[in-house]
Write a structure and sequence with these properties.
The structure holds three protein chains of three kinds.
Chain A lengths: L5 H18 L4 E5 L6 H13 L5 E5 L2 H14 L5 E4 L16 E4 L2 H4 L4 E5 H4 L7 E6 L7 H7 L3 E8 L26 H8 L5 E3 L2 E2 L7 H8 L5 E2 L7 E4 L8 H12 L1 E6 L9 H16 L2 E4 L7 E2 L5 E5 L2 H11 L9 E4 H4 L4 E7 L10 H4 L1 H7 L3 E10 L2 H6 L18 H13 L2 E3 L1
Parallel strand pairs in A: 1-7, 1-8, 2-5, 2-6, 3-4, 3-5, 6-7, 9-10, 12-18, 12-19, 15-16, 15-17, 17-18
Antiparallel strand pairs in A: 11-13, 13-14
Helix pairs in contact in A: 1-2, 2-3, 6-7, 8-16, 9-10, 14-16
Chain B lengths: L2 H13 L3 E2 L13 E7 L7 E7 L6 E4 L5 H17 L5 E4 L8 E4 L5 E3 L2 H14 L14 H14 L8 E3 H8 E2 L4 H4 L2 H8 L7 H7 L15 H17 L2 H35 L6 H20 L11 H25 L1 H10 L2 E10 L3 E2 L9 E2 L2 E6 L10 E3 L8 E8 L4 E7 L15 E6 L37
Parallel strand pairs in B: 2-7, 7-8
Antiparallel strand pairs in B: 1-9, 2-3, 3-4, 5-6, 10-13, 10-17, 11-12, 13-16, 14-15, 14-17, 15-16
Chain C lengths: L1 H11 L9 H6 L7 H9 L3 H7 L10 H30 L7 E4 L9 H17 L7 E4 L3 E5 L2 E5 L3 E6 L2 E7 L11 H24 L10 E7 L6 E7 L1 H15 L2 H5 L25 H9 L16 H10 L8 H6 L6 H9 L9 H18 L4
Parallel strand pairs in C: 1-2, 6-7
Antiparallel strand pairs in C: 2-5, 3-4, 5-6, 7-8
Helix pairs in contact in C: 1-3, 7-8, 13-14
The chains are: A alpha/beta, B alpha+beta, C alpha/beta.
């Protein structure tokens, strides 16, 4: 009874983080933020908090899209601050960002010098000379490579690192074994090197996911996170309803109905080994999206208590590989009603949010498992983008594939064993999905 | 791997004979490379039993390290390798000043080492590590020392990690880029079975020849590990005998050990030279010479480093060196892939099967199209449009920059893709060389296009004495910051 | 249980089951999808003898000199009651006190019959230590541990030391591969951790059966190896939690081997029909075709790396080659070709001589496209 509400937990956590920023004697503070836990809000609050005694600060994000999102949130939520959006030469600002008295968009760091907050990608910051701030905020720090941090760490005295530890690790296109287990592994994430070198730094966390519905938060928390978190909303606050009932009661309809009712569905196709591109699975994903739209789904949530019609822009289809995404994009173009649905790989869906996601299971149709397909971060990204429901499309047989997973990866001395283990995370999610299975 | 390569593997299996992949080589093959076949002493780490080395296929030199007599072996091997390396120190040229680079002296050519596979390349790296910190004996020339041998082996092995470097060639790796066999990559990592698929002896299929080549007593596998059957059959008794014998008896056993090592390495020696000649016979792609030039520069720089009394390579990269090396390795891999795609038909063809490239016909052009100014003080920009139709299965995203072998300097961005049942229409915007009329090909021209090489800017890292707090374990607190300062 | 063991006994024939060791247990995790291997391992069939009899022996992979050098190194490290070992452990585990009670269990004999005795002694010493009786630090050399594999107790005789300090048991493995500048070859380290995991599991099981928490066993493996290029020993630690879980999963699966056995035709046996009891002189008389038929009732899953961990690898490879299975070409080809199993089928789809099944349409299109490009490059019929 006396348990604090989710909002209260969130508020306390943020307050604690902000206090820590101003009182800490450490040069860095790390904040672990599970999916949809208000990371951007925290960054905006922290920026305001740090600039209040007239200390301008800088923000580092990893991609241009992330920088744009942050800039747009800052200008809305903190109109009293002047924000500079630093960019590279080839950058074109999206329409929603309009330069004005409070927003400077420039390629030249000198023009950003007077701004309260300057925001840019890590690679842009790496080329900025003669710059110094008391505080830097590094967003998506778990996706930042150690070598990127090395390039920019000198720009500020202290830094707040915010990120989602459950998402994908940074990667390289080349083999990087020579450094495995060494303290200076340039491929390690910025946070892991930071904590290895400065183990005494405070690591705080945000305890509530405002994105994930109550049907998803406990599963995602248990499967992928060492620091648990809970959902900010209750079962009754998030609902998905349809204006039209399902037609023939086919598998796709059942899948869509089950997902609307429970927040999860596993649309299981007959077992078969397939290539990376499995046309049947792709078509199933498309049909599911079509049914969601044709039946005119309405999503009810705390932001839209009277309901919001589900539009293509509220739906994403997630894949493991780029060619799978390319194939799906190709299929989407054949139906104008689907225009606006995002299709992308787990890598690029990081940090994004949708009402409903449709996921091609990374292990679907495979003959063998591989480290890539088993990576916990990949599955975590794919299954934690949604506010209402997540529908997984997969070939039957993933249970056997997991059972048959060989364990013969090379071991590197002194390299930390990774947790959560991809195999276990997959097993955990699959076990849950099996209870939401519709056989096609 | 591409479906094209898989298809050639299938054919190889069906026809019992290796099938061609790329017909052009991208690495330099020297006229006189030095082939090195190391053989490790069983049960030891980077401690050779023998090394067969030399530049003349007809005259291999065998360096033997009979247990209990390593030092002579090392001095002899060092002398042999140093003589080869130093022979490149006679001819130099002057590279004129360019940009910020001042005029420089450079060697005309560089040495090239050849090993049979990844395991041997790794072995040389470990051997280099084992030797490079050895002290240089008082009164001897460091340039011929065992320590410098270690430095050079490390240099070659480290360069071999760069996809673009030809300083240390890996034969099985290179052969596998030019031939598909009916066996797995794991099997292709051994020279004898791989060569058996490419050149099966008369009367045998590639598969039969490869199976025959698996018999370690008839075809001792390439090193550096001695095959255990061979060890039991030929070496175990000699090891035991050498332990206890002296004088003439010992010499007798050493001679037999020498014989055994020669018997073990000679077949691989002959096969390896055949492989080298075969690879040399493949015509190089255009950019090969430029890559070898870079190798020569690296060789010059390292020669200068050693001549100036520079220290051996450190045991581990420090944080800055590791970051720089990673950036360079990534750049090497990406630039090689990009230039091969534009210079090698096969690589382009592979990319067509994966959707990263396509061949199509120009159906429409707008050479004089301009786009409105981007800023207040800018003028409209010329951005010609080209429409290409292809029936290759294209998988490219909008905004991707493309280039083709017809003129690699012209980069065009994908503006739009329209799929129909049979083909795909792609609208491209020319982004570079926009004022050059030849950048817009005529309607009806057939174009091959693939993703253009990314622009590479050498990343700037802090100097070693300015490594930031995030990457050092000094445990310092914020400068000028006392706990509680802000609370006041 | 007894019906299971009699079923497995029939499969094996009238010979003693092939004893497991940590290496063979570690290999269980290498290709768990292979049903053939799972059945043979559960029944304790001697796969090497099978391969030899079928004419597909795997050439030896262990160097005799490496083995003896390894034994020398181990002896050196354990010399003088493990004095050198103890000082390494003290540094690595940050222990205050200088000595530990050292017991070498190999003095009880190394014959097979001594195993029971040694296991009993190991067990009582470990439980004594766990109860806090006796010395506060205990070092057990050559302990014999027991693990249940497919319902059958298996003795593990590790070349290692179980070390108890502050109430926690540590498994110490002595390996002869060198750790150079803090790094070891990834495959060798992986092998060592998997073997170590088998011992950790056995030790956990021993303690839990006696009512102790499995947490009394450290899941971090202590590895003693030569340092750099010398013979001087050094200690490293490896987090073995993943390997422990993985191996436990495979052991659990072997417990459920009945499902697989149920799919075999009745009366199947892999008995080599030896003509005598003496292992040194006996000859296998089983008809080879008949044995092959028996093996074919089990589903093999050949992979190119099988030879690193299964003595039957060359037999399965020959079968895969005979059956023109894509698997002989390695994993990337199999991945490219999706559900197609044979080389002939894939080529038939590529040249259009075979009509694709409805679910192969897409792949067939891709193959035909690749084939047309191939023809452009290399010409058609060659």
């Amino acid at each position: 009874m006396n348990e604090p509400s989710a909002a209260e937990l969130s508020r306390r956590a943020v307050a604690h983080i902000l206090t820590t920023l101003t009182t800490t004697s450490h040069r860095g503070v790390v904040v672990d933020s599970p999916p949809g836990a208000g990371k951007t809000t925290l960054v905006v609050h922290a920026a305001q908090h740090l600039t209040r005694p007239q200390h301008p600060c800088m923000i580092v994000a990893q991609t241009n899209a992330q920088v744009d999102d942050l800039v747009s949130r800052l200008t809305q939520d903190a109109p009293h601050l002047t924000v500079a959006r630093l960019s590279g030469q080839s950058y074109r600002a999206p329409d929603r960002l309009q330069a004005g008295p409070n927003l400077i968009i420039t390629t030249d760091a000198r023009q950003a010098a007077a701004a309260d907050v300057a925001v840019a990608t890590a690679s842009k910051w790496a080329n900025v000379q003669d710059w110094h701030r008391r505080w830097a905020i590094v967003d998506e720090a778990y996706q930042m490579r150690s070598d990127n941090l090395l390039q920019i760490a000198h720009l500020a005295d202290q830094a707040l690192f915010v990120g989602d530890p459950g998402q994908l690790d940074p990667f390289s296109t080349i083999p990087t074994q020579p450094w495995k287990g060494l303290a200076h592994d340039p491929m390690a994430s910025a946070v892991s090197i930071l904590l290895k070198m400065n183990p005494q730094l405070p690591v705080l966390s945000l305890p509530v996911s405002w994105r994930l519905p109550a049907s998803a938060a406990p599963l995602i928390s248990a499967a992928f996170y060492t620091t648990p978190f809970r959902a900010g909303t209750t079962d009754t606050e998030r609902r998905l309803t349809f204006a039209h009932p399902g037609l023939h009661g086919g598998a796709v309809e059942q899948t869509v109905d089950l997902a609307a009712r429970t927040g999860w569905a596993l649309h299981e196709l007959p077992a078969r080994h397939t290539r990376r591109i499995d046309p049947e699975a792709a078509h199933a994903a498309i049909s599911i999206a079509q049914r969601l739209l044709i039946r005119e789904a309405t999503a009810y949530c705390e932001d839209h208590p009277t309901g919001q019609p589900l539009e293509p822009g509220h739906i994403a289809i997630g894949t493991a590989h780029r060619d799978q995404a390319g194939y799906l994009q190709h299929l989407l173009r054949t139906d104008p009603r689907l225009k606006g649905i995002d299709v992308d790989t787990a890598n690029r869906l990081q940090g994004r949010e949708y009402a409903v996601t449709i996921v091609l299971h990374p292990l679907s149709g495979r003959r063998d498992t591989s480290g890539f397909h088993l990576e916990a971060g990949r599955l975590c990204v794919l299954t934690s983008r949604h506010r209402h429901a997540c529908i997984v499309v997969a070939r039957a047989g993933i249970d056997r594939l997991l059972d048959d997973h060989p364990f013969n990866e090379p071991v590197h001395l002194n390299a930390d064993a990774k947790f959560p283990d991809g195999w276990e995370a997959h097993q955990h999610v699959l076990h849950h999905l099996t209870g939401h299975r519709i056989r096609a | 791997m591409s479906l094209l390569t898989t298809l050639q593997q299938l054919r190889a299996s069906e026809r019992h004979h290796a099938q061609p992949l790329s017909r052009l080589r991208y690495l330099h093959v020297a006229d006189q490379p030095m082939l090195i076949l190391p053989l490790n002493r069983p049960g030891e780490t980077a401690r050779p039993l023998a090394v067969m080395a030399g530049c003349d296929p007809g005259h291999p030199r065998l360096f033997l390290a009979p247990p209990g007599d390593d030092d002579r072996f090392l001095t002899d091997l060092a002398e042999h390798l140093h003589t080869y390396i130093h022979s490149f120190h006679y001819a130099t040229r002057i590279r004129p000043a360019k940009g910020e680079q001042p005029e420089r002296r450079e060697y005309l050519d560089a040495p090239q080492l050849v090993v049979t596979g990844t395991a041997s390349a790794y072995y040389l790296k470990m051997l280099g590590r084992a030797l490079r910190y050895r002290p240089v004996p008082e009164g001897t020339d460091p340039a011929t020392s065992v320590s410098h041998l270690g430095c050079w082996l490390t240099f070659f092995a480290e360069r071999a990690e760069y996809a673009t470097s030809s300083l240390l060639l890996n034969l099985t790796g290179l052969l596998s880029t030019h031939w598909a066999t009916g066996q797995s990559i794991l099997d292709n990592a051994h020279l004898a079975p791989l060569m058996a698929w490419i050149f099966p002896p008369p009367g045998l299929t590639g598969h039969q020849a490869a199976l025959a080549a698996e018999n370690p007593l008839q075809h001792p596998p390439d090193g550096p590990t001695v095959d255990p059957s061979f060890e039991s059959a030929r070496l175990s008794s000699l090891f035991a005998a050498l332990k206890s014998s002296r004088g003439v008896r010992r010499q007798h056993h050493v001679a037999r050990l020498q014989e055994a090592a020669e018997d073990y390495l000679q077949p691989t020696w002959d096969l390896a030279w055949k492989a080298i000649a075969t690879l040399r016979g493949l015509p190089p792609v255009r950019s090969t010479a430029a890559r070898w030039d870079t190798d020569i520069r690296r060789f010059t720089a390292y020669s200068d480093h050693l001549a100036a009394g520079g220290p051996p390579q450190p045991k581990h990269d420090d944080v800055v060196s590791a970051a720089i090396r990673l950036a360079e390795l990534e750049h090497a891999a990406a630039s090689l892939a990009a230039s091969r795609a534009l210079e090698d038909d096969f690589v382009m063809a592979e990319r067509r099967t994966t959707g990263e490239a396509f061949r199509g016909t120009v159906t429409h052009t707008e050479p004089d199209r301009t786009i409105p100014p981007q800023g207040p003080r800018q003028r409209p920009k010329r951005r010609p449009l080209i429409t290409v139709r292809t029936n290759d299965p294209v998988r490219l995203e909008p905004n991707r920059l493309l280039a083709g072998p017809h003129d690699p300097a012209v980069h065009m961005a994908v503006l739009d893709l329209t799929y129909t049942t049979d083909d795909t229409e792609i609208v491209l915007e020319v982004r570079t060389r926009t004022s050059n009329p030849s950048s817009v090909p005529a309607v009806g021209t057939t174009l091959l296009l693939t993703t253009a090489p990314d622009h590479f800017r050498r990343p700037q890292f802090p100097s070693r004495d300015q490594i930031p707090w995030t990457h050092t374990d000094t445990g310092l607190t914020a400068p000028g910051h006392e706990p509680g300062e802000d609370q006041a | 249980m007894s019906s299971l063991s009699s079923r497995l006994g029939t499969l094996r024939g009238p010979v003693e089951p092939k004893p497991h060791n940590a290496r063979s247990l570690a290999a269980l995790t290498a290709n768990p999808g292979c049903r053939r291997r799972a059945i043979l391992d559960a029944a304790g069939v001697d796969k090497e003898a099978l391969a030899v009899h079928l004419g597909h022996p795997l050439p030896p992979t262990q160097s005799p000199r490496a083995l003896s050098r390894g034994a020398q190194f181990e002896a050196q490290v354990k010399d003088q009651g493990g004095a050198e070992l103890l000082s390494l452990l003290r540094d690595k585990l940050h222990l205050p006190l200088p000595e530990a009670a050292h017991t070498d269990l190999s003095v009880l004999g190394t014959s097979d019959r001594a195993m029971n005795v040694r296991h009993a002694r190991t067990r009582s010493l470990i439980l004594e230590a766990a109860h806090g009786k006796g010395a506060s630090r205990t070092m057990l050399d050559h302990p014999v541990l027991e693990l249940t594999v497919a319902g059958r107790p298996v003795f593990l005789e590790p070349d290692l030391v179980a070390f108890q300090s502050e109430g926690i048991f540590h498994v110490v493995e002595i390996k002869s591969f060198a750790v150079v500048d803090g790094q070891a070859p990834g495959d060798k380290a992986a092998g060592a951790v998997l073997q170590g995991a088998a011992y950790i599991i056995a030790l956990q099981d021993l303690l839990t059966r006696a009512g102790f928490s499995p947490e009394r066993v450290s899941t971090t493996l202590l590895l003693i190896t030569p340092r750099d290029f010398s013979r001087r020993p050094m200690a490293s630690t490896i987090d073995a939690r993943h390997q422990i879980k993985s191996l436990r999963r495979q052991l659990d699966r072997l417990e459920r081997i009945e499902d697989l056995l149920g799919q075999l035709p009745a009366g199947i046996t892999f008995d080599l029909a030896y003509d005598g009891p003496d292992a040194r002189t006996r000859t296998a008389t089983r008809d080879r075709d008949d044995l092959t038929k028996a093996l074919n009732t089990t589903e093999a899953r050949y992979r190119a790396n099988c030879r690193h961990h299964c003595q039957l690898a060359h037999f399965c490879r020959a079968q895969a080659h005979e059956g023109q299975l894509i698997d002989v070409l390695g994993s990337s080809a199999s991945e490219d070709l999706g559900g197609i199993d044979t080389i002939a089928a894939a080529l038939g789809l590529a040249d259009g001589s075979r009509a694709p099944a409805p679910d192969q349409e897409d792949l067939a299109t891709a193959l035909r496209h690749a084939e047309s490009i191939r023809n452009e490059l290399f010409g058609g019929a060659a």
